[in-house]
Specification:
It catalyses: GTP + AH2 + S-adenosyl-L-methionine = (8S)-3',8-cyclo-7,8-dihydroguanosine 5'-triphosphate + 5'-deoxyadenosine + L-methionine + A + H(+). The protein is an alpha/beta fold. Helix content is 32%, strand content 16%. Strands 7-8-9-6-5-4-3-2-1-10-11-12 form a 12-stranded mixed beta sheet. The structure holds S-adenosylmethionine (SAM) and iron/sulfur cluster.
Length: 324
């Protein structure tokens, strides 16, 4: 469907949990997190109902996120329900990769279309500093397992001045050595991310060009998102830049979000949302649910307001609570 700005909305990011097996500094505090109870988060049946209603109004692609989606019990079953029963064109995940090694085979069998793996550094110590727990080798093994199973992967890297500035060139090299697209995501001033010094994507492109030579703007589209890709000579895949802050892409935004507790969110930066859990538990029909989605999506905010500082409707929850 189209919203009031004539944007086609065909993509839903669904957070399946607010829990995570890592504690990345820009996303979660180290201790003292009150996670939602089992009853507060949507069941698989409820997520399935929302997905079917969303499909009715034109959503074709679903990304499962969190928290860490692979820590949700039986996530493989949900992927299969969305792919093989709801017949979504694409069911993808964004994951920290820690559990991929053991799960890649089952994920492939369930019909997972692709995986985005978050990886900010290839240095073991820096990895521990950023994620506060977890082993880099688990992520590297997980990437390998996906490639062996034939699950296409992309790497998402969030560059932060005080942590991984010296890793950017190495991370980009993954797209040279393997068929892995690498995307640099500008840190957004959301939740714990506000405390850190982001590195703009223009600066990263200049750095990569100084090492790998002049890049060409690519026409290839590697995913559903707002990334702008560049091709470097001798690289197997492109290098993408997701520049929400320095190059706002809201005019082509194609997505809405569902939080793990069932709030339909129309924009990451705006608090505004519709409580679908309440409606689902009151027994809303599929037809009514599609209408609720349609009526909400049509009024999707025009853009985020990162440059305005504080806004009235600003989202105050952290990335892990919203679903990144
Ligand atoms: N746990 C999964 C993962 O790490 O991929 C999925 C959830 S995580 C919140 C999704 C993505 O959001 C990760 O790539 C993470 O680096 C990114 N992220 C978290 N906080 C961010 C922020 N303030 N700005 C930009 N990206 C952020
Ligand atoms: Fe967990 Fe992903 Fe947040 Fe890191 S970015 S703490 S892996 S949810």
């Amino acid at each position: 469907m189209k919203d009031n700005q004539e944007r086609i909305i065909d993509y839903m990011r669904i957070s399946v949990t607010d829990r995570c097996n890592l504690r990345c500094v820009y996303c979660m505090p180290e201790e003292g997190i009150a996670c939602m109870s089992h009853n507060e988060i949507l069941s698989f049946e409820e997520i399935y109902q929302v997905a079917l209603a969303a499909k009715e109004i034109g959503v074709r692609k679903i990304k499962l996120t969190g928290g860490e989606p692979l820590v949700r019990a039986n996530i493989v079953k949900l992927i299969s329900m969305l792919k093989n029963e709801a017949y979504m064109e694409q069911v993808t995940i964004t994951t920290n990769g820690i559990l991929l090694k053991e799960m890649a085979k089952d994920l492939k069998k369930a019909g997972l279309t692709a995986a985005n793996i978050s990886l900010d550094t290839l240095d073991r110590e820096t990895f521990s500093k950023i994620t506060r727990r977890g082993n880099l080798s688990d992520v590297l093994d997980g990437m390998k397992a996906c490639m062996e199973e034939g699950i296409p992967i992309k790497i998402n890297c969030v560059p932060v001045r005080e942590f991984n500035e010296d890793q950017i060139v190495e991370i980009a090299k993954l797209a040279k050595d393997d068929p892995i697209a690498v995307r640099f995501i500008e840190m957004m001033p959301i939740g714990y991310g506000k405390q850190y010094d982001p590195i703009s994507n223009d600066e990263i492109l200049a750095l990569l060009e100084s090492v790998y030579g002049k890049a060409r703007r690519s026409q290839t589209v590697y995913g559903n998102g707002p990334a702008v890709y560049y091709e470097f000579e001798g690289f197997q895949k492109g290098i993408g830049f997701i520049s929400a802050v320095s190059h706002e892409f809201c005019s082509s935004c194609n997505r809405v979000r569902l939080t793990s507790d069932g709030i339909l969110k129309l924009c990451l930066h705006h608090k505004q949302g519709i409580d679908l859990r309440e409606k689902l538990r009151e027994g809303i029909s599929q037809e009514e649910l599609s209408k609720v989605l349609r009526d909400a999506i049509v009024k999707k905010p025009i853009s985020h307001q990162f440059h305005k500082g504080q806004i009235d409707d600003e989202e105050t929850r952290s990335m892990v609570q919203i679903g990144g």
